[in-house]
Amino acid sequence: MPSLVSPFATLELDRQPPRRDDPLQAFDAADEYLLQQVAEGGLAPATRVLVLNDAFGALAVSLAGHAQVTSSGDSHLAALALAANLARNGLAADAVTFVPASEATGGPFDLVLIRVPKTLALLEEQLIRLHGQLAPGARVIAAGMLKHLPRAAGDLLERHIGPVQASLAVKKARLLFATPEARPAVTSPYPSRYRLDAPPLTLVNHANVFCREGLDIGTRAFLPHLPQGLGQARVADLGCGNGVLALACALANPEAQFTLVDESYMAVQSAQENWTAAFGERPVAIRAADGLAEQPPRSLELILCNPPFHQQQVVGDFLAWRMFQQARAALSEQGELWLVGNRHLGYHVKLRRLFRRVEQIAATPKFVILKAVQPL
To answer: CB-hemisphere CA count at 13 Å for 280?
Structure first.
């Protein structure tokens, strides 16, 4: 893999989760462009830098040791990548402070570097939170590859920070320079809420939750077919989002024991709030994690999953395949993985490599609900 070379460091960087012969690299031209711009503007050791949405630590690791760096984002995998890449390049674990997007960062900051995220609601929430967190004369620079940089990103910077000037494109990357101006405090529109009739639930959704404004159609297809009569079974909602699958299943199975995991901190935050609203003090384990990597082997009887088909802007079934492998390891000998997927993805073929039996529970013109039984 190529090294990231910048005025600050030459780094070897890995993506997370690890993947054998990964064809993708852990940085892009927007990272390089942004680091070059920071160097040209000068960076003193006392500068307080906030890095937002640094997918694999390319920016924060490059600047570690050159300034006081805080990194914040909504991906637990990004946090793992940051820690791994600091270690790989001989830097101390505390050389960068990581703050999950579900928590407040502590300013004031002299320099804010933003990788524009796929979900603009996350960007809007982050910009709203910057109110009162910028030091006098602070610089705010956003970056992205042209194909992933919508005009609306500049509009949000203009609305919440100040006038925006766009750079020339370099290697298909562009920078947006926002000049901070006094702005009145804005009440965030997040979290949003929507109501389900069956089952009757009101769901809280923080800014980066998938399908924040309403139930996604895959989950809608899955809900009527969730298993019942589980007794005290140990159940996990893998990639839980706002927790709706676990909530619906828990309503129908009052004695079952639930674990909810997602790599999005805002999803976990939403799921926790939704569980508490629905069940009060009913015991549950909810955590941000690399799927079921931390789950003890053979410790679950049932796993529910609506797997993702992308990581940031990269589309593919790599994460889903990894989830299926984790499910196989975490399920008991007679355990079951229930999932919903687009018909065209052909998940049943992959599942037959990991489980003794794969059944179709139901189908719509677009989705199939599958049950994979007895992990190999």
So the answer is: 2
